[in-house]
Amino acid sequence: MLGKEFTVDRYGVEMPEFASAAYRQAATAINLGQAYQLLAARQKLRTGQDPVAQAVAELERTTGGRTDAIAEIQAAREGYLAAAAAFEEMRRKARANVRDLALWVEGVRLNIFYADFLLAAVAGELPARASEFLERLSRLREQTSGLFSDTYEARSVEEELDLRYGFHADYLRGLAHN
Predict the structure, then answer these.
(1) Which of 108, 117, 125, 111 is nearest to 55 (CA)?
(2) Cβ partners under 8 Å of residue 59, min gap 6
(3) Per-residue confidence at 31, pLDDT binned at 50, 70, 90?
(4) Cβ proximity of 35 and 163 under 8 Å
(5) Cα–Cα dist 32/137, whole Å
(6) For FRET with 143, which of 31, 155, 168, 169 sits at 20 to 30 Å CA-CA?
(7) Are 86 and 5 in contact (CB under 8 A)?
(8) CA 3 – CA 20 distance, rounded (Å)
(9) CB 176 within 8 A of CB 137
């Protein structure tokens, strides 16, 4: 009931699907894009370590192996896809604060990218797909920039983009050059 009241107040229309979409966006045991993780991974990369290999090894250890790790990432990805579809539909229905829902969509798309990146890493496909991921990252970065530039100062937009995409871009560029 509270969720319905929130969406009527915030978006001008009842959206009972909002709560489940928000839950799907957040409900995963795999932390894919926390700021502290991205910053730490980038620092490891700068010191010559391979934080992706380390993360894959840890994920496989905690999930019980490669097959279970892939299954867990795929389950999270499916939740993200469902959330993205729900938020896109809510954007079409909303009568107010549509931009808020665009931010939700951007966040879900980012998590889908992180999940796909991790899936490719666990499957051993990341080196062969580095260029594909770099192109995708570039498109996401451009979309995020356009969305955030309405409310962020230019320097803050760049800092946010660097935080969200910098580690992955650095890692993928390293793979693409090898």
Answers:
(1) 117
(2) 30, 69, 72, 73, 118, 122
(3) low
(4) yes
(5) 15
(6) 31
(7) no
(8) 10
(9) no
**pTM to 2 decimal places:** 0.92
User: How far, in Å, CA of 45 to CA of 114, rounded?
Assistant: 17
12, with CB counted inside 10 A (0-12, 13-18, 19+), is middle
Q: What is the DSSP string of 64-130?
A: TSHHHHHHHHHHHHHHHHHHHHHHHHHHHH-SS-HHHHHHHHHHHHHHHHHHHHHHHHHTT-HHHHH
Model pLDDT for residues 80-139, shown as the tens digit of each residue: 999 999 999 999 999 999 999 999 999 999 999 999 999 999 999 999 999 999 999 999
Tell me which amino acid residue 94 is. Answer: A
Q: Return d(Cα 124, Cα 164) in angstroms, integer.
A: 23
Residues in the chain: 178
- Count the alpha carbons within 13 Å of 159 in the hemisphere toward its beta carbon: 6
Residue 40 amino acid letter: A
